[in-house]
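Whiteboard transcription, Tuesday session. T.W. wrote the structure tokens on the left side:
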């Protein structure tokens, strides 16, 4: 194939990738709108924070549990069709909720069941999207492509609460549900306009063939047979465990030293930071050696967690919180680029699904641990008469919220120590050099 043909093929693949990305952005905005609106509606109907939190649980958990099977289907089928059927299934669930609401029959349990089914359909999206991008984007631009999905997510997360609140107040829940259904239709329409090539056959793909259950387990066997990738996976699982508290405890921490209106501005810094980080990763693509980016931004996020808990200052917290989330798409983009180069395209659905399931399985544990530690361990340490009032208190302050601040500091220190220690693990540090890039058979 001559140079002109290669350039034309690459340009065509990039155009197709952007069409897919645009469809995913539209779909994500609709999904975030519905999640926001349904959570608000459930809380308004029940007044129960537990019922409100259950929306988040049933929206996330089924998708995580489904991942081993979804990866197998992604590798077996046309990835464009997988994305279309995923959107169609999730859109149908939203349409059923809208119809039940219009008939006056919508119950809370209907939402739980239908959102759980929608989550199962949604679990096909990320492995299909990631595996398709490998086939469409030149290898040297994997880092930039990896920054595009968090960019879409950050845009959706920024727009959804504002637009959702306006729509709920002005037009009510039905308007949000109808818009969500329309976004799914638009996303399917964009996918209908393009074609995604089937992945080339590789030796790893041939070895993975078997029953659906054996193929689902192959992703795990593939990872554990490669210590460098396994180390990278465990690095991110530990990172998510240690820093998951930053996602669940900023509200009670900021509430201890800021007014309600100021809190919204302070917490918005996280969304802005993630948006800027996604844009930067999409434009830059990360360092030539991606592990340097993972280590560097991992250390930065640890130091940001320390700074966020150091003093009861809205300005300090906003800056640290923004930089903390700025580093997230940077780290994830560098990691994604490594996985895309090292894993053969015809098994990426299975491998990426197992990878996501393990990396994100530590997040719910982190949320549970954070609540217990904050309320029963760290907060009492810095309340009047607490054991650390005279030692740590003069440094970070005492009273409500300061124990949570200390928990942020401890988590940040553990992340910094963990990152420095892993720099001395040769299998992880040299994963890009020691593990060869995939080669088509």
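and on the right, the sequence the group agreed on:
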């Amino acid at each position: 194939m001559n140079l002109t043909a290669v350039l034309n093929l690459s340009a065509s693949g990039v155009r197709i990738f952007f069409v897919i990305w645009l469809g995913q952005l539209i779909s994500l905005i609709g999904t975030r709108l519905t999640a926001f609106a349904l959570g608000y509606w459930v809380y308004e109907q029940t007044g129960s924070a537990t019922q409100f939190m259950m929306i988040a649980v049933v929206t996330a958990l089924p998708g995580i549990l489904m991942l081993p099977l979804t990866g197998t289907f992604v590798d077996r089928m046309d990835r464009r069709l997988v994305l279309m059927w995923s959107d169609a299934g999730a859109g149908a669930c939203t349409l059923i909720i809208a119809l039940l609401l219009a008939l006056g029959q919508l119950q809370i349990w209907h939402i739980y069941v239908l959102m759980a089914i929608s989550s199962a359909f949604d679990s096909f999206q990320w492995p299909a999207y990631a595996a398709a991008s490998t086939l469409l984007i030149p290898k040297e631009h994997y880092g930039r492509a990896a920054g595009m999905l968090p960019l879409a997510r950050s845009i959706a997360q920024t727009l959804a609460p504002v637009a959702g609140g306006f729509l709920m107040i002005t037009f009510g829940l039905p308007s949000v549900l109808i818009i969500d259904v329309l976004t799914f239709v638009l996303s399917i329409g964009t996918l209908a306009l393009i074609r995604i090539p089937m992945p080339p056959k590789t030796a790893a793909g041939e070895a993975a063939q078997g029953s659906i259950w054996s193929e689902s387990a192959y992703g795990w066997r593939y990872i554990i047979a490669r210590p460098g990738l396994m180390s990278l996976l465990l690095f991110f699982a530990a990172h998510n465990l240690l820093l998951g508290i930053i996602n669940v405890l900023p509200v009670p921490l900021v509430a201890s030293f800021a007014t309600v209106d100021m809190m919204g501005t302070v917490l918005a810094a996280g969304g802005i930071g993630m948006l800027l980080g996604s844009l930067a990763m999409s434009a830059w693509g990360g360092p030539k050696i991606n592990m340097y980016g993972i280590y560097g931004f991992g250390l930065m996020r640890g130091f940001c967690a320390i700074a966020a808990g150091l003093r009861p200052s809205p300005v300090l917290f906003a800056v640290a919180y923004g930089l903390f989330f700025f580093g997230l798409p940077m780290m994830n983009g560098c990691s994604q680029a490594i996985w895309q180069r090292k894993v053969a395209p015809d098994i990426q659905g299975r491998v990426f699904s197992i990878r996501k399931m393990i990396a994100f399985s530590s997040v719910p544990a982190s949320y549970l641990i954070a609540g217990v530690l904050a309320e029963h361990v760290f907060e009492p340490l810095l309340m009047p008469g607490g054991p650390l009032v005279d030692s740590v208190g003069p440094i970070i302050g005492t009273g409500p919220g300061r124990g949570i601040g200390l928990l942020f500091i401890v988590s940040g220190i553990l992340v910094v120590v963990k990152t420095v220690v892993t720099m001395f693990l040769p299998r992880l540090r040299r994963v890009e050099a020691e593990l060869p890039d995939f080669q088509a058979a």
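Someone added at the bottom: The chain is about 80% helix and 0% strand.
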